[in-house]
Amino acid sequence: TGPRTIAVVGLWERRPNWALADESHTHVESYPGGWAWSVPVSKTRRQVTVMLDPRRTEVGRGSRLPSTYQQELARTTMIGAMIERARPIGRPWARDASPYESEPAARGRVLAAGDAASFVDPLSSYGVKKALASAWLAAVVGHSVVGDATLEEPARRLFPTRERAMVAGLRRQLEQLSHEAELAHPTGFWGDRGGL
């Protein structure tokens, strides 16, 4: 449920380097159409991604991905300046990055952990942490049941409750971030997400 997000990713190269204050940093920028980020791959290469709502772009209407990617990057300020003297390597590619929750997270004696249980919006930057915490909780449930079979039913009930609580907390953080971006960009992508 909620707004869809698609990640459109490209690889860029700039020689001899990117001339950034700290080239190891990830850079994130919101703009009216979504948000963009850049992460180093090597000293001369960076991945540059735009996160957008497929319903609001040509991508959602089956248009060419490279032209949409370039158009969205042109709407950015900081990221656009970063890639000004860089060259793209290959073609951009896209993946669905929409948040979801599997229901139920516990099916009999099977626990859906990590991204199989839920996926949080990448803007939270807690996806890996959430996946690891989910796997840790599943391990605690398994260990508890192996150690004491009478704990099986309460442990299986605990897992989805904690999984949902973790996702709800991250969703609240995302709502706050989205609301802040909505103040700068009140329509479009952020207007849809500001009141998640």
Task: Produce a short descriptive summary.
The chain is of the alpha+beta class and 196 residues long.
**Integer average pLDDT:** 87
Record field, number of beta strands? 9
* Secondary structural class: alpha+beta
Distance between the termini: 10 Å
Taking the sheet with the most strands, its summary is: 5 strands, antiparallel
How do the strands of the widest beta sheet line up side by side?
Answer: 2-3-4-1-5
The general outline is elongated
Describe the structure.
The protein is an alpha+beta fold and 196 residues long. The chain is 38% helix and 23% strand. The protein has helices at 65-74, 78-82, 127-147, 152-184, 189-193, and strands spanning 6-13, 27-31, 34-40, 45-52, 87-96, 100-101, 106-107, 110-111, 118-119. The strands form three sheets. It has a five-stranded antiparallel β-sheet with strand order 2-3-4-1-5, with helices on one face. It is elongated. It starts with 5 loop residues before the first strand and ends with a helix. The mean pLDDT is 87.
Write the layout of secondary structure elements.
Layout: E1 6-13, E2 27-31, E3 34-40, E4 45-52, H1 65-74, H2 78-82, E5 87-96, E6 100-101, E7 106-107, E8 110-111, E9 118-119, H3 127-147, H4 152-184, H5 189-193
Q: What would the keywords be for this entry?
A:
two-stranded antiparallel ribbon; elongated; 9 strands; alpha+beta; 196 residues
